[in-house]
Every structure is written in structure tokens, then in C-alpha cells.
Design a protein that fits this description.
Layout lengths: L1 E3 L2 E3 L2 H6 L1 E3 H8 L3 H9 L7 E3 L3 E5 H10 L9
Antiparallel strand pairs: 1-2, 3-5, 4-5
Length: 78
């Protein structure tokens, strides 16, 4: 990681190559792009990156972290 002021950033090439669009992110998560949009509006969806006005991208590492944050161990039989 490289430091830019107080902000830590990934190597720019690595940061760009791990970005996927809405359709790819939805496919990876097994949901529709519309479901991702709704989740974002409800503030329960994975973090996303907005490039320009309408280009929404998701980091693969953020999708992975978001899924892992929703893991839980329920009671036996569930």
C-alpha cells in the first residue's frame, strides 16, 4: 500500500483490476442488479465505487468482506 497524505491506497493497477460492474457483482452474489441497487438504497448492501455519473463498480475484496460479515453460526438444525 502506498500512503497519500493520511489516506492509504492500493497500488493503482491492483485497485482497478479488482473492480467489477453491477452485473458481474450481482452474478457473483447470486442476486439481480436491481437487488444490489435496493440494498444500496437501504444501506445494507456491499460498498461500491462510483466512477463518473453512472458507472458503478464493486471491489472484489469488498464483496468478499461483505459476504464474510454476514456469516453466522445458528443453533443446530438451522
Amino acid at each position: 500500500m502506498k500512503g497519500v497524505g493520511k489516506v492509504q491506497t492500493l497500488d493503482s493497477k491492483a485497485a482497478i483490476t479488482e473492480l467489477v460492474d453491477r452485473q458481474q457483482a450481482a452474478r457473483l452474489l447470486g442476486v439481480s442488479p436491481r437487488t444490489l441497487d435496493r440494498s444500496h438504497l437501504l444501506r445494507i448492501g456491499p460498498p461500491r465505487v462510483v466512477l463518473g455519473r453512472h458507472k458503478i463498480r464493486y471491489r472484489l475484496s469488498s464483496l468478499d468482506a461483505w459476504v464474510r460479515s454476514r456469516e453466522f453460526v445458528g443453533p443446530p438444525g438451522e
